[in-house]
Amino acid sequence: MLNFIYYPVSFIMWVWHKAFGFVFGADSGVSWVLAVIFLVFTLRAILYKPFVGQVRSMRKMQEMAPEMQKLRKKYANDRQKLAAEMQKLQSENGANPLGGCLPILVQVPVFIGLFHVLREFKPGKTENYFFGADEVRSFVDSDFFGAKLGATVINTQYSTTTLAELGGNLTSQLIVMIPLMILAGIFTHITARHSVARQMANPAAMANPQTAIMNKLMLYVFPIGVVVGGPFLPLAILFYWVANNLWTLGQQYVVYKKIDAEEAEKKEKATAQRNSLAPKPGQKPQRDVRDTSANGNGAGPDAVEAGSDGSLDGGVAGGTDGGVAGGTDGGVDGEASSAPAKKPGAKPVNKPKPGAKPVGGKPGNRPAGQAGRPGGGGNRTQARKGKKRR
């Protein structure tokens, strides 16, 4: 029924046994042990990218933990709305909780497949999926320091062959199996502790009671289970377990270091960009030039420029239409003052022509716009009289 699992597992193991058989010999127990170990390495290499995706997804889920907690409180009585909001939040942040389960879900069938293939190595059997009769006999006759790879110390209803049928003895089996059981439990604990240490960086995730229970199971129950269950498993399964935990430990170190470096680089870039946009110390802020006069009387920029020249000459500063320009108007004493705004219907003030004589025939009788010129000596009353005589 599960041949789609058994055949790929047996094929990978068969390829590695052929490769190491050229070096150590086809009947050597070392060749079979390395075939099992590199079966694990092949599988984990294939699952490297999904594992990286799993780590990234877990990191995003940890970052979203406060938002998820708020949604749980907000929609505590509406599970359908809560599920919809959770899915929306995960899609917005690119998190996939199912993606984190993929590496584990793939390893379970491989473990089952390897366990089944090892059970089928029986004396007198002619084939075992990809293995032929010679390879079955080679596995049965081989040993690793006197221990049989397909034998268990304690037989169960799932055991197809006993240690005596494979030609082994209990002492040699225990000498090899006990250290492997201890190593499998230690590496399982170290791997779990490494993962839990990453989770402790997020207090919100650690506050979840379910997370605390799972962490305790990973740290203590699973390692103890491996040690206790070792005598019921074939020796090759213990090699598989140790190799799998060693790979996981090394892979976690490499992947976590890579992801931490990426996040540190992103933070540095964000900080550098923020600093580049911030104003430098002592720098004045840039402001837009408003269409107002310098003295606030509402005249435009051109009028201000023209008025500045008119104040020096004492004439009327302004445009050719006779509009009063913002600037200084030549007063009686030549002091700067704002010219009054042009009234509706008022006649335009004509600018005196160059060389024209002042109105009134007297030096002091000059137009009001020229009264403030040095040496004029006129006043506003005389200017009005001159206008009437004209």
TrEMBL record:
Q: Where is the composition biased (Gly residues)?
A: 312-333
Keywords in alphabetical order, please. Cell membrane, Chaperone, Membrane, Protein transport, Transmembrane, Transmembrane helix, Transport
Q: Domain of life here?
A: Bacteria
Residues forming the Membrane insertase YidC/Oxa/ALB C-terminal domain are 32-257
Question: Where is the sequence biased in composition, kind Low complexity?
Answer: 334-371
Which residue ranges traverse the bilayer? 5-24, 30-51, 98-118, 174-196, 217-242
The UniProt entry lists membrane topology as: Multi-pass membrane protein
Quote the subcellular location field of this record. Cell membrane; Membrane
| Pfam families documented for this protein | 60KD_IMP (PF02096)
Locate the region Disordered. Answer: 267-390
Q: Which InterPro entries match?
A: YidC/ALB3/OXA1/COX18 (IPR001708), YidC/Oxa/ALB_C (IPR028055), YidC_ALB_C (IPR047196)
* Function summary: Required for the insertion and/or proper folding and/or complex formation of integral membrane proteins into the membrane. Involved in integration of membrane proteins that insert both dependently and independently of the Sec translocase complex, as well as at least some lipoproteins. Aids folding of multispanning membrane proteins.
| Family statement | Belongs to the OXA1/ALB3/YidC family. Type 1 subfamily.
What is the annotated quaternary arrangement, including any partners?
Answer: Interacts with the Sec translocase complex via SecD. Specifically interacts with transmembrane segments of nascent integral membrane proteins during membrane integration.
Q: What is this protein called?
A: Membrane protein insertase YidC
